[in-house]
Amino acid sequence: MPYTQEELQKLDFYKRLTEEDEQQYLQNKATLELKANYSGSANQGSLVRDSLDKILLFENPYKNELLEDESSKIVYDLKVKTLKTKESDTIVEEVLDRRFREL
Question: How far apart are CA 56 and CA 21, in angstroms?
Fold first, then answer.
């Protein structure tokens, strides 16, 4: 028969198990941040990414809230290239391929 949440909180085994998981989670976060700092990818937003280049965000395992530290800070550039604002702009030539080809 399964335990209720109240019963689980009283079990020493369960307490140790959850504390171990929380410590492993925080250790994994620290390791990934250290790798990001060594690789130089830190603070182009200081974000931690996985091997597929997905952003990893970590929460506080004790409060179930997103950590608001350097690992969750996103830096982005607000500059936007316009396709064409006047005749002398060349961004259109970079974006559009205007060469004719035979089919």
Answer: 18
Q: Could you count the other beta carbons within 10 Å of the beta carbon of residue 31?
A: 11
Q: Which among 77, 64, 71 has a CA at the least distance from the CA of 28? A: 71
Q: 69: phi > 0 → left, psi -120 to 50 → alpha, else beta; which? A: beta
> Nearest Cα to 58, choosing from 97, 24, 20, 92?
24
Where along the chain do its domains lie?
Answer: 5-76
Nearest to 37 by CA among 52, 25, 49: 49
Residue with tokens 């091997």: 51
In a 13 Å sphere around the CA of 13, the CA atoms on its Cβ side amount to: 3
Q: Residues 35-90: pLDDT tens digits? A: 777 766 555 555 677 777 777 778 877 787 877 776 666 666 677 766 666 666 66
In the numeric block, which tokens belong to residue 99? 């060469």
